[in-house]
Amino acid sequence: MHVFLTGASGYIGSAVLRALIARGHTVTAVLRSGEKAARAREAGATAVVGDLADQELVARLAREADAVVHTASAEDVDPGFTATVLETLDGTEKPFVHTGGIFTFGASGDITEDTPIAPPALTAWRTANEAHVRASTVRTTVVAPGIVHGHGAGIPTMFVPDGDAPVRLVGDGTQRWTTVHVDDLAELYVLAVERGDQDGYLVAASGHNPTVRDLAQAGVEGQPGVEGQADARAAVVAESVDESRQRLGTDFADALLLDQAATGAHARGLGWQPSRPTLVEELRSGYRAD
Protein backbone atom coordinates (compact mmCIF):
# COMPACT_ATOMS: atom_id res chain seq x y z
CA MET A 1 0.00 0.00 0.00
CA HIS A 2 0.99 3.62 -0.52
CA VAL A 3 0.67 5.41 2.83
CA PHE A 4 0.54 9.15 3.46
CA LEU A 5 2.27 9.56 6.85
CA THR A 6 2.50 12.60 9.11
CA GLY A 7 5.05 13.05 11.87
CA ALA A 8 7.70 10.93 10.16
CA SER A 9 10.49 12.82 11.91
CA GLY A 10 8.94 12.42 15.36
CA TYR A 11 9.40 9.77 18.01
CA ILE A 12 6.37 7.67 17.10
CA GLY A 13 6.19 8.62 13.43
CA SER A 14 9.78 7.67 12.65
CA ALA A 15 9.16 4.23 14.15
CA VAL A 16 5.95 3.89 12.11
CA LEU A 17 7.88 4.83 8.99
CA ARG A 18 10.45 2.08 9.66
CA ALA A 19 7.70 -0.46 10.32
CA LEU A 20 5.74 0.41 7.18
CA ILE A 21 8.85 0.13 5.00
CA ALA A 22 9.77 -3.18 6.66
CA ARG A 23 6.33 -4.53 5.72
CA GLY A 24 6.82 -3.58 2.06
CA HIS A 25 4.60 -0.48 2.01
CA THR A 26 5.59 2.74 0.25
CA VAL A 27 5.39 5.98 2.22
CA THR A 28 4.97 9.65 1.37
CA ALA A 29 5.77 11.88 4.33
CA VAL A 30 5.21 15.60 4.85
CA LEU A 31 7.97 17.37 6.80
CA ARG A 32 8.40 21.01 7.70
CA SER A 33 12.08 21.35 6.82
CA GLY A 34 14.54 20.11 4.24
CA GLU A 35 16.68 18.59 6.99
CA LYS A 36 13.80 16.49 8.31
CA ALA A 37 12.79 15.56 4.79
CA ALA A 38 16.33 14.33 4.09
CA ARG A 39 16.19 12.02 7.12
CA ALA A 40 12.84 10.63 6.00
CA ARG A 41 14.26 9.93 2.54
CA GLU A 42 17.19 8.12 4.12
CA ALA A 43 14.66 5.94 5.95
CA GLY A 44 12.98 5.05 2.65
CA ALA A 45 10.14 7.56 2.31
CA THR A 46 9.22 9.97 -0.45
CA ALA A 47 9.46 13.24 1.44
CA VAL A 48 7.53 16.44 0.74
CA VAL A 49 8.44 19.71 2.44
CA GLY A 50 5.21 21.36 3.47
CA ASP A 51 2.75 22.21 6.24
CA LEU A 52 -0.19 20.15 7.47
CA ALA A 53 -2.22 23.37 7.54
CA ASP A 54 -2.00 23.44 3.72
CA GLN A 55 -5.38 21.87 2.96
CA GLU A 56 -4.74 21.59 -0.78
CA LEU A 57 -1.51 19.66 -0.15
CA VAL A 58 -3.15 17.38 2.43
CA ALA A 59 -6.10 16.64 0.17
CA ARG A 60 -3.86 15.87 -2.80
CA LEU A 61 -1.62 13.51 -0.85
CA ALA A 62 -4.65 11.77 0.68
CA ARG A 63 -6.16 11.27 -2.78
CA GLU A 64 -2.90 9.86 -4.14
CA ALA A 65 -2.41 7.44 -1.23
CA ASP A 66 -4.09 4.16 -0.34
CA ALA A 67 -4.14 5.03 3.38
CA VAL A 68 -3.40 7.93 5.74
CA VAL A 69 -1.60 7.63 9.09
CA HIS A 70 -1.55 10.69 11.34
CA THR A 71 1.06 10.61 14.11
CA ALA A 72 1.72 14.38 14.21
CA SER A 73 -1.35 14.84 16.38
CA ALA A 74 -1.53 18.27 18.02
CA GLU A 75 -4.22 20.63 19.24
CA ASP A 76 -3.51 23.27 16.60
CA VAL A 77 -3.22 20.74 13.76
CA ASP A 78 -5.86 18.07 14.21
CA PRO A 79 -9.19 19.84 13.56
CA GLY A 80 -8.23 21.17 10.13
CA PHE A 81 -6.12 18.20 9.10
CA THR A 82 -8.65 15.54 10.07
CA ALA A 83 -11.53 17.46 8.49
CA THR A 84 -9.64 17.62 5.20
CA VAL A 85 -8.65 13.95 5.29
CA LEU A 86 -12.14 12.77 6.20
CA GLU A 87 -13.69 14.84 3.41
CA THR A 88 -11.14 13.55 0.90
CA LEU A 89 -11.48 9.89 1.86
CA ASP A 90 -15.27 9.93 2.15
CA GLY A 91 -16.83 7.37 -0.18
CA THR A 92 -13.61 5.38 -0.56
CA GLU A 93 -12.32 2.26 1.18
CA LYS A 94 -9.08 3.96 2.18
CA PRO A 95 -8.22 3.64 5.90
CA PHE A 96 -7.32 6.59 8.12
CA VAL A 97 -5.33 5.78 11.27
CA HIS A 98 -5.37 8.57 13.84
CA THR A 99 -3.39 9.00 17.07
CA GLY A 100 -5.04 9.29 20.46
CA GLY A 101 -3.56 8.67 23.90
CA ILE A 102 -3.98 6.69 27.09
CA PHE A 103 -4.56 9.79 29.25
CA THR A 104 -7.98 10.08 27.58
CA PHE A 105 -9.34 7.43 29.95
CA GLY A 106 -8.34 9.15 33.18
CA ALA A 107 -7.56 7.11 36.30
CA SER A 108 -8.50 3.47 35.72
CA GLY A 109 -6.99 0.16 36.72
CA ASP A 110 -8.48 -1.79 33.81
CA ILE A 111 -8.46 0.34 30.67
CA THR A 112 -10.07 -1.18 27.60
CA GLU A 113 -11.49 0.28 24.42
CA ASP A 114 -14.87 0.50 26.19
CA THR A 115 -13.66 2.40 29.27
CA PRO A 116 -15.51 5.72 29.62
CA ILE A 117 -13.31 8.69 28.82
CA ALA A 118 -12.28 11.14 31.55
CA PRO A 119 -9.40 13.12 30.09
CA PRO A 120 -7.26 15.47 32.17
CA ALA A 121 -6.89 19.08 31.08
CA LEU A 122 -3.72 18.23 29.15
CA THR A 123 -5.56 16.13 26.57
CA ALA A 124 -9.18 17.28 26.87
CA TRP A 125 -8.83 18.89 23.44
CA ARG A 126 -8.73 15.42 21.86
CA THR A 127 -12.34 14.61 22.79
CA ALA A 128 -14.24 16.55 20.13
CA ASN A 129 -11.72 15.73 17.42
CA GLU A 130 -11.77 11.98 18.09
CA ALA A 131 -15.57 12.05 18.17
CA HIS A 132 -15.50 13.64 14.71
CA VAL A 133 -13.11 10.98 13.43
CA ARG A 134 -15.14 8.10 14.86
CA ALA A 135 -18.49 9.44 13.64
CA SER A 136 -17.35 9.67 10.03
CA THR A 137 -18.17 7.09 7.36
CA VAL A 138 -14.46 6.72 6.56
CA ARG A 139 -12.67 3.54 7.65
CA THR A 140 -11.00 5.06 10.72
CA THR A 141 -8.97 3.59 13.56
CA VAL A 142 -7.80 5.54 16.61
CA VAL A 143 -4.63 4.17 18.23
CA ALA A 144 -4.29 5.20 21.89
CA PRO A 145 -0.70 4.59 23.06
CA GLY A 146 0.36 4.19 26.65
CA ILE A 147 3.53 5.89 27.89
CA VAL A 148 5.89 5.30 24.98
CA HIS A 149 9.46 4.15 25.57
CA GLY A 150 12.43 2.81 23.67
CA HIS A 151 15.71 4.04 22.17
CA GLY A 152 16.45 6.17 25.23
CA ALA A 153 13.74 8.72 24.44
CA GLY A 154 10.33 9.94 25.53
CA ILE A 155 8.85 10.73 28.93
CA PRO A 156 10.86 7.98 30.70
CA THR A 157 14.06 10.02 30.34
CA MET A 158 12.93 11.83 33.50
CA PHE A 159 14.06 8.73 35.40
CA VAL A 160 17.63 8.79 34.12
CA PRO A 161 19.80 10.45 36.81
CA ASP A 162 21.57 13.68 35.98
CA GLY A 163 24.95 13.26 37.62
CA ASP A 164 24.65 12.80 41.39
CA ALA A 165 21.26 14.50 41.64
CA PRO A 166 18.45 12.26 42.95
CA VAL A 167 15.64 11.16 40.67
CA ARG A 168 12.40 12.88 41.62
CA LEU A 169 9.13 10.98 41.55
CA VAL A 170 5.89 12.45 40.28
CA GLY A 171 3.96 12.71 43.54
CA ASP A 172 4.67 9.80 45.86
CA GLY A 173 5.24 7.41 42.94
CA THR A 174 2.55 4.88 43.84
CA GLN A 175 0.57 5.51 40.63
CA ARG A 176 0.97 3.04 37.77
CA TRP A 177 1.75 3.92 34.18
CA THR A 178 0.65 1.72 31.31
CA THR A 179 3.49 1.47 28.81
CA VAL A 180 4.38 0.42 25.27
CA HIS A 181 7.65 0.16 23.39
CA VAL A 182 7.76 2.49 20.39
CA ASP A 183 8.69 -0.31 17.97
CA ASP A 184 5.83 -2.53 19.19
CA LEU A 185 3.53 0.48 18.88
CA ALA A 186 4.68 1.06 15.31
CA GLU A 187 3.75 -2.49 14.38
CA LEU A 188 0.26 -1.89 15.76
CA TYR A 189 -0.14 1.11 13.46
CA VAL A 190 0.82 -1.09 10.52
CA LEU A 191 -1.72 -3.70 11.62
CA ALA A 192 -4.39 -0.98 11.81
CA VAL A 193 -3.55 0.19 8.29
CA GLU A 194 -3.69 -3.31 6.88
CA ARG A 195 -6.96 -4.16 8.63
CA GLY A 196 -8.71 -0.93 7.62
CA ASP A 197 -11.49 -1.34 10.17
CA GLN A 198 -14.57 0.85 10.30
CA ASP A 199 -14.48 2.86 13.55
CA GLY A 200 -11.66 0.83 15.03
CA TYR A 201 -10.15 1.74 18.39
CA LEU A 202 -6.97 0.20 19.76
CA VAL A 203 -5.48 0.67 23.22
CA ALA A 204 -1.75 0.27 22.63
CA ALA A 205 -0.51 -1.19 25.90
CA SER A 206 2.10 -3.90 26.44
CA GLY A 207 0.47 -5.09 29.68
CA HIS A 208 3.44 -3.78 31.68
CA ASN A 209 2.05 -1.35 34.27
CA PRO A 210 4.89 -0.40 36.65
CA THR A 211 4.59 2.18 39.40
CA VAL A 212 6.43 5.43 38.99
CA ARG A 213 8.59 4.45 41.95
CA ASP A 214 9.51 1.17 40.19
CA LEU A 215 10.59 3.17 37.16
CA ALA A 216 12.63 5.68 39.11
CA GLN A 217 14.46 2.98 41.04
CA ALA A 218 15.15 1.07 37.84
CA GLY A 219 16.56 4.22 36.29
CA VAL A 220 18.96 4.69 39.18
CA GLU A 221 19.96 1.01 39.16
CA GLY A 222 20.89 1.36 35.50
CA GLN A 223 23.58 3.94 36.21
CA PRO A 224 27.27 3.17 36.89
CA GLY A 225 28.24 3.14 40.55
CA VAL A 226 24.88 1.96 41.89
CA GLU A 227 25.39 -1.34 43.65
CA GLY A 228 21.81 -2.47 44.25
CA GLN A 229 18.24 -1.66 45.14
CA ALA A 230 19.15 -0.12 48.49
CA ASP A 231 21.30 2.48 46.75
CA ALA A 232 18.56 3.03 44.19
CA ARG A 233 15.91 3.63 46.83
CA ALA A 234 18.15 6.15 48.56
CA ALA A 235 18.58 8.09 45.32
CA VAL A 236 14.83 8.45 44.68
CA VAL A 237 12.94 11.37 46.19
CA ALA A 238 9.16 11.68 46.54
CA GLU A 239 7.43 15.01 46.26
CA SER A 240 4.02 16.44 46.99
CA VAL A 241 1.42 16.94 44.28
CA ASP A 242 1.96 20.68 44.50
CA GLU A 243 5.72 20.22 44.11
CA SER A 244 5.20 18.08 41.01
CA ARG A 245 2.84 20.65 39.55
CA GLN A 246 5.32 23.43 40.16
CA ARG A 247 8.19 21.45 38.61
CA LEU A 248 6.37 20.01 35.59
CA GLY A 249 3.45 22.36 35.08
CA THR A 250 -0.02 21.63 36.44
CA ASP A 251 -1.56 19.99 33.39
CA PHE A 252 1.40 17.73 32.63
CA ALA A 253 1.83 16.74 36.27
CA ASP A 254 -1.87 15.94 36.68
CA ALA A 255 -1.71 13.62 33.66
CA LEU A 256 1.38 11.83 35.01
CA LEU A 257 -0.26 11.49 38.43
CA LEU A 258 -3.07 9.35 36.96
CA ASP A 259 -3.08 5.73 38.10
CA GLN A 260 -3.58 3.68 34.93
CA ALA A 261 -3.28 0.04 33.93
CA ALA A 262 -4.15 -1.84 30.73
CA THR A 263 -3.41 -5.20 29.13
CA GLY A 264 -3.85 -4.41 25.44
CA ALA A 265 -5.88 -7.63 25.15
CA HIS A 266 -8.05 -6.43 22.27
CA ALA A 267 -5.07 -5.54 20.08
CA ARG A 268 -3.46 -8.89 20.89
CA GLY A 269 -6.65 -10.60 19.84
CA LEU A 270 -6.21 -9.03 16.40
CA GLY A 271 -2.71 -10.49 16.06
CA TRP A 272 -0.52 -7.82 17.65
CA GLN A 273 2.44 -9.35 19.49
CA PRO A 274 4.47 -6.85 21.55
CA SER A 275 7.88 -8.41 22.15
CA ARG A 276 10.36 -5.68 23.07
CA PRO A 277 11.87 -5.23 26.56
CA THR A 278 9.72 -3.64 29.24
CA LEU A 279 10.43 -0.12 30.40
CA VAL A 280 11.78 -1.36 33.74
CA GLU A 281 14.16 -3.69 31.90
CA GLU A 282 15.34 -0.88 29.65
CA LEU A 283 15.89 1.51 32.54
CA ARG A 284 17.87 -1.09 34.48
CA SER A 285 20.05 -1.63 31.42
CA GLY A 286 20.83 2.07 31.19
CA TYR A 287 18.31 4.12 29.23
CA ARG A 288 20.37 5.82 26.54
CA ALA A 289 19.73 7.01 23.02
CA ASP A 290 20.80 4.63 20.28
Describe the structure.
By secondary structure, the chain is an alpha/beta fold. It has a domain at 2-149 and 180-206 and 263-275: NAD(P)-binding Rossmann-like Domain (Rossmann fold), CATH 3.40.50.720. The chain is built from twelve helices and 13 strands. It has helices at residues 11-22, 34-42, 55-64, 78-89, 126-135, 182-195, 212-221, 229-234, 241-248, 250-256, 265-269, 279-284; strands at residues 2-6, 26-31, 46-49, 67-70, 95-99, 108-111, 139-145, 147-149, 167-168, 179-181, 200-204, 236-237, 260-262. The strands form four sheets. It has a seven-stranded parallel beta sheet with strand order 3-2-1-4-5-7-11, sandwiched between helices. Strand 1, helix 1 (11-22) and strand 2 (26-31) form a beta-alpha-beta unit. Helix 3 crosses helix 4 and helix 9 packs across helix 10 (250-256). The radius of gyration is 19 Å and the shape is globular. The two termini are 29 Å apart. The model has no long low-confidence stretch (mean pLDDT 95).
